[in-house]
UniProtKB/TrEMBL annotation:
Belongs to the FlgI family. It comes from Comamonas flocculans. Transmembrane segments: none annotated. This is Flagellar P-ring protein. It is found in: Bacterial flagellum basal body. GO terms for molecular function: structural molecule activity. One of its GO terms (cellular component) is bacterial-type flagellum basal body, distal rod, P ring. NCBIfam families: PRK05303.1. InterPro entries: Flag_FlgI.
Amino acid sequence: MKPLSARSLLPWLVAMLVLAWLAPAQAARIKEIAAVQGVRSNQLSGYGLVVGLDGTGDQSTQMPFTAQAMANYLQQMGISLPPGTTAPQLKNVATVVITAELPAFAQPGQAIDVVVSSIGNAKSLKGGTLIATPLRGADGQIYALAQGNVVVSGAGAAAGGSKVQINHLAAGRIPEGAQVERSVPTPLNEGDTITLGLNASDFQLARKVALAINARSGPGTAMALDGRTVQVRAPTQPGARVAFIAELEELQLPDSTPAAKVVINARTGSVVLNQAVTLGPCAIAHGNLSVTISSIPVISQPNAFGQGQTVVAQQSAITIQQQGGQVQQMPAAPQLADVVRSLNALGATPQDLLAILQAIKAAGALNAELEVI
């Protein structure tokens, strides 16, 4: 089957956007647009060793800290190298950094997943085992202990200078590879109020959240402090507070139009528009400029009995070609489907749209916030 080109996919994308815009909007719940402040995860990290590799570990001559880390580990086990012994060549050992996310309310004894990433020149972590490694938080305290067999989803082989590799071999995961040793206290049960933090700053949405809570629990229960924070009076008993928050998160909010935004990924050329984006009338001319440089070797050779030397020079030819671009008039587009139809009428590639949208925004014809990621 012949693969579809990017231009042939445009009608399908337009149809999907139109159908998404015509589809009835569903009311969102508070749990989908806000979170209780203080209920958050924490990042953990540690430095450790992966052993048991099949000759794919760090080269100790280039990575001296691998031998030093292994010597420190052996010393903790009561084994020390004789004085004057040269650093061993540890081809089956790799130094790694372990990262993990400690969920909110995690208690000692619970297991969490960890990610193991090589920091040396190890060729692969496949088949390796992470030895016991403490994981520390931002305060330097140990919150978990990681150990286990590293799961690497890639595969590779090399022979005679040729190499074949599928996926990434220098990083892997250990499902439930760390055990929580210490819990993180949360201020959830402190005071007589809780604070809801919206995922995005929006004064209208903060007001609607406060109105929905007051409609359920009575006037004065909730108050919007700013465009991102809503303060709510809650029961002081821990059990009653948990039940109150559970019911609070399920409250439905009336439909609201989000702030108009266009998100551009400059690395991949992706352009995403939400349903609130509108376009004012404007005129656009866009053409492509291509520069071609070719180099031709020119050999100057002396006569048979001459005393000169053969000289090789390069003769360069530069060609500049510019495609003509007609001025396209774009009418006002009050709906997302009209915006997509107008942009597709230009016949521009996604990479061209990056420059076109920025120019439209600078001209004041794009009624949306432009965010480049």
